[in-house]
Design goal:
By secondary structure, the chain is mostly beta strands. The protein is built from four helices and 43 strands. The strands form eight sheets. It has a 22-stranded antiparallel beta barrel. A hairpin with a 2-residue loop joins strand 35 and strand 36 (632-633). It is globular.
Length: 765
């Protein structure tokens, strides 16, 4: 795809000021035999998805249920260019769109992809793995974002929208049971009208699952991958004349045994040293390039991940032409986790002994666990946004201001064994702690104008945003994990002005094309694991994009296409390493510049009554123009972590004619993503010089299906749905993430969950 030419593009606007969309199915029934209409508010006004000049994939609540999406991470199987993968602990998730990802869950980093829940920005690097109740719809917006609400990002945005309280009293209860003794119970109550214009809802979910990696010394409910979570959500909606209020509170309390990070590769010295363990009466060294069937990982307490979140939206319509809106959010998250790495525990190995002067005086066989990390994290954030939305003849505009305040802290102790040779090793410990603060202010404005030419088929959009980010961090690094620490205090300010220009032209009522050009920005910051290293610079992007949206054959076929070229300067890259004081570290650096080029194609068809077919393809071909690392330009050697060049998905759903005893439906979805590496370079060119490629993940095939009988009448106003579903029906086993601990002599891999078969029942009355 390196021949992908810039001459393909017209001058076009970036998504630098575009919004994460809010998509919903229209209340009106779709045309018989045709496709349903999808309404979005990407530009703060309701419009058909097909009329919006932004590359969007949107999922309504009905579609999410038909695809059996119980966790948000599954939407990556159905979205061109989207990846959602665990970070190696229970504390975060790496999100990638069009190949741009941030995969180190350190709290000082800014995600390359924004995540929003009901318009409130969420740091995906910490909150990414959580239960979200009452999913109404999910939207994915691709490309650099300097969004009108939320943080600037360069990869894209994911917007999660939850359900408002219903207008009538109602109860919904859902239960499911699946492989690995997985049970999910969920209940929702809508109060209906409590008073004129006021209504509320209350939801609760309990979810628990045994682990899906067999640990030979533990019960199933303590195997790696086991989880138990309680989630509660309360919502209130009120209307008094031209004033509207929406308030939500949700909390999630999770108790997890983290994913299993098995030894996938070891250096010759590491393998020989720990290979002595079994002969010395300890646990044998277990490692494999394939998924291990049984492990004996160190037993640790369950990880705690708790969050408490508030969101308040106030809106007032001064007139039909001017509206004022306030969006306020507060989120409080804390995590405690001890995470073992490796597949063996209680290993007996000879470790060197030292006298008071640091001289070697011998060696003693001791029982050790190869590597233990984890610790605690805290993040509190407050956000406030004000908007003025106006409408004039031929002109729609939005003006506003945004404020973000976040405080965070992490304490990360580690214990490990540093192998000096096949016969000599040293027990070591490291500890890193830091506390930081981020404040961000932004002013923005955007206007869309329809000139009185070309039969009103041309629309021009311009936008401007100014952002100021202030960051500070205090770091403590402990020698051998013991006080007193070395300390560092750092602070800096980053400023940016983003802009976009968009041209959108409707050739017919059902066919339109757009072109965009503009800029994106991701704030700079500090890398505490690099202790006292200078701040890394903001990452900046320029995007050139064209798109075509069409509905053909009397709305029986929807075909959308987007092609893009994104140029990045001061690209932020995370590279693993090792410190004899902090232990294993990964530092964020500005590697240089890169170009990402690619396209996305999406088709949806309704060839017959009750039948819907979908297909999509995405391709991305990134290339480094400069990759500076340790004083060298390694652009020809470095690769792009977490990037699958090809991503495809095909799906089909058929709803049979209704009967007196319900409606049958069947759905199948298949997705494929090509191979990828997880790091740009190998971290230790001497001990494990090929670690990056040896830890790469192969292609992934995912097949899921669902057979359901819905709308089973029980009594007046009551009905039931029952379903049989399957995930990973091909039982394809692949690596979802890896970590290169090269300086310590090994690399670990996390594998996906094997095949899942489950049943579900839903009661509505």
């Amino acid at each position: 795809m390196r021949g992908f030419s810039l001459t393909l593009f017209l001058t076009c606007a970036t998504s630098g000021l575009a919004l994460p969309v809010v998509a919903q199915e229209t209340a009106a029934a779709p045309q018989i035999g045709g496709l349903e209409e999808i309404v979005v508010t990407a530009r703060r006004r309701e419009e058909n998805l097909q009329d919006t000049p932004v590359s969007i994939t949107a999922f309504s609540g009905a579609k999410l249920e038909a695809m059996n999406v119980q966790e948000v991470s599954k939407i990556a199987n159905f979205t061109p260019g989207l990846e959602l993968v665990p970070s190696g602990t229970t504390q975060g998730v790496a999100v990638s769109i069009r190949g741009i990802a941030t995969y180190d869950p350190i709290l000082t980093n800014e995600p390359s992809v924004s995540l929003y829940v009901d318009g409130i920005y969420v740091n995906a690097l910490s909150y990414g793995q959580f239960d979200t109740l009452d999913l109404d719809r999910v939207e994915v917006l691709r490309g650099p974002q300097g969004t009108l609400f939320g943080r600037n990002t360069t990869g894209g945005a994911i917007n999660i929208v939850t359900r408002r309280p219903g207008t009538e009293f109602g109860v919904e209860a859902v239960m499911s049971y699946a492989t690995h003794d997985e049970f999910v119970g969920r209940a929702r109550v809508d109060t209906g009208e409590l008073a004129p214009g006021w209504r509320a809802s209350l939801s609760y979910q309990y979810r628990k699952r045994d682990g899906y990696v067999d640990d030979i010394t533990r019960p199933d409910n303590r195997d790696p991958g086991a989880t138990e979570a309680n989630a509660l959500r309360a919502a209130l909606h009120g209307e008094i004349g031209d004033f509207a209020l929406d308030y939500t509170f949700d909390m999630v309390l999770r108790r997890d045994i983290g994913p299993h990070n098995q030894f996938a590769i070891v250096s010759d010295a590491y393998g020989a040293f720990f290979g002595q363990s079994e002969a010395l009466g300890g646990d044998p060294l277990r490692f494999s390039a394939d998924r291990l069937k049984t492990v004996n990982a160190p037993d640790v307490p369950r990880a705690h991940n708790d969050s408490y979140n508030h969101a308040l939206t106030l809106a007032y319509a001064f007139s039909d032409a001017i509206n004022l809106k306030s969006i306020t959010g507060y989120r409080d998250w804390q995590s405690d986790e001890i995470q073992p790495f490796g597949s063996s525990s209680g290993m007996n190995v000879p470790l060197l002994d030292f006298d008071a002067n640091g001289n070697v005086v011998g060696a003693t066989v001791r029982t050790v666990d190869p590597y233990i990390g984890g610790g605690s994290k805290k993040l509190k954030q407050f956000t406030q946004e004000l908007q003025v939305l106006g409408t004039l003849p031929r002109l729609n505009y939005t003006m506003g201001a945004y404020y973000y305040h976040g405080k965070y802290a992490e304490d990360n102790p580690q214990t490990y064994v540093f192998v000096l040779s096949p016969t000599a090793g040293v027990a070591g410990a490291g500890r890193l702690a830091y506390q930081g603060k981020t404040e961000s202010w932004a002013l923005f404005g955007q206007a869309s104008y329809t000139p009185a030419i070309l039969d009103d088929n041309l629309e021009l959009t311009v936008g401007l945003r100014y952002t100021e980010d202030r960051k500070s961090v205090d770091t403590q690094v402990y020698q051998n994990g013991l006080p007193p620490p070395f300390t560092s205090a750092q602070a800096d300010k980053f400023e940016n002005t983003s802009y976009n220009v968009t041209a959108n032209y409707k050739f017919t009522p059902d066919i339109s094309a757009y072109a965009r050009f503009g800029t994106g920005y991701r704030a700079g910051g500090f890398s505490p694991r690099g202790f006292d290293a200078p701040a890394y610079n903001p990452e900046k992007a320029k995007v050139y994009e064209i798109g075509l949206k069409s509905e053909l054959f009397d709305r029986r076929l929807r075909a959308n296409f987007a092609a893009y070229r994104t140029e990045y300067d001061d690209l932020q890259i995370t590279q693993p390493g090792f410190s004899d004081t902090a232990g294993f570290v990964s530092n964020t650096i500005n590697a240089g510049s890169a170009v990402y080029q690619g396209f996305e194609v999406e088709f949806t068809a309704a060839p017959a009554e009750g039948l819907t077919l979908t297909a999509d393809v995405s391709y991305v071909d990134p290339e480094y123009k400069e990759f500076l690392y340790l004083g060298q330009d390694l652009k020809d050697e470095a690769k792009f972590g977490y990037v699958s060049k090809w991503s495809t998905h095909v799906g089909g759903r058929y709803q049979f004619p209704a009967t007196d005893w319900g409606v049958w439906s069947i759905a199948l979805d298949y997705s494929y993503k090509s191979k990828r590496v997880f790091e740009s370079l190998s971290s230790d060119p001497i001990g494990l010089p090929n670690a990056r490629d040896d830890l790469a993940g192969g292609g992934r095939d995912e097949l899921s299906g669902r057979i359901a009988l819905s709308q089973i009448p029980l009594s007046e106003g009551a009905s039931m749905d029952i379903a049989l579903y399957g995930e990973n029906l091909l039982n394809d086993i692949y690596r979802v993430s890896t970590i290169d601990f090269g300086a310590l002599g090994f690399g670990t891999a996390i594998y996906n969950r094997p095949r899942v078969i489950g049943v579900q029942a839903k009661l509505v009355f």
